[in-house]
Amino acid sequence: MAESMTATKKVKFVVTRQDAPEAKPYTEEFEIPYRPNMNVISALMEIQRNPVDHTGKGTAPVCWESNCLEEVCGACSMVINGKPRQACTALVDKLEQPIRLEPMRTFPVVRDLVIDRKRMFNSLKKVKAWIPIDGTYDLGPGPRMAEPKRQWAYELSKCMTCGVCLEACPNVNDKTSFIGPAPISQVRLFNAHPTGEMNKDERLETLLDDGGIEGCGNSQNCVRACPKGIPLTTSIAEMNRDTTKLMFKNWFKV
């Protein structure tokens, strides 16, 4: 009896669609058979297998991105019931219906739920979010980090460039050049590395440029939205302190 009830139960979705980057968005409704333990990705896969709307009319399959399905890659970011999050960990049983799926509008829409996160990746390039090492020879074991520092640095390294914190931030939009919380936190991470700190001032100078740390309005939306629980506001506060120190140092050089 329970199995037959599950077989007849439907899950309703309202998906915001967009056929091309410059096309006008529209919504389309879908109903799919319920299965226990469904997540949003498995629901989208069901729509892809049988692309018909809630009236039974055939339509183009919904486009979205996913990869690891373990909340590690960050590819499946979208707005689900008004909240930016990962679709792979959004369980249907815990979502209010109809489940509304939208692309993250902080980024340009490529098609349907697929977005172009180039803005974030360019910001990571701008702040040099990597450890530069010259040469290809064997450098041997790297310097050790103190255990307390390693522990909090590891928390920052969990960033999966999903873009959720930028979507949640009211100061990241097409009218500003603010780089957003994730790149600022990555500056803190790489400046803490024993090798990476050689370029510490260079990264901090970038945060003093237009679109840098002064763009933060301290709304704290980012830390609440981060799916990995990264202490983004702590990173921003630390980098605000370090950039202030750098400004004073630069003044005394003049």
TrEMBL record:
Pfam families (UniProt xref): Fer2_3, Fer4_8
GO molecular function: 2 iron, 2 sulfur cluster binding; 3 iron, 4 sulfur cluster binding; 4 iron, 4 sulfur cluster binding; electron transfer activity; metal ion binding; succinate dehydrogenase (quinone) activity
Entries under SUPFAM superfamilies matching the protein: 2Fe-2S ferredoxin-like (SSF54292), alpha-helical ferredoxin (SSF46548)
Enzyme Commission identifier(s): 1.3.5.1
Gene3D superfamilies recorded: 3.10.20.30, Alpha-helical ferredoxin (1.10.1060.10)
Cofactor(s) listed in the protein's UniProt record: [3Fe-4S] cluster; [4Fe-4S] cluster; [2Fe-2S] cluster
UniProt GO BP: respiratory electron transport chain; tricarboxylic acid cycle
Enzyme class: oxidoreductase
Domain 4Fe-4S ferredoxin-type: residue ranges: 150-181
UniProt keyword DNA damage present: no
Keyword set, alphabetical order: 2Fe-2S, 3Fe-4S, 4Fe-4S, Iron, Iron-sulfur, Metal-binding, Oxidoreductase, Tricarboxylic acid cycle
Lipoprotein recorded as keyword: no
PANTHER family given in the database record: SUCCINATE DEHYDROGENASE [UBIQUINONE] IRON-SULFUR SUBUNIT, MITOCHONDRIAL, SUCCINATE DEHYDROGENASE IRON-SULFUR PROTEIN
Family from the record: Belongs to the succinate dehydrogenase/fumarate reductase iron-sulfur protein family.
NCBIfam families: dhsB, PRK08640.1
Name of the protein in question: succinate dehydrogenase
Gene: sdhB
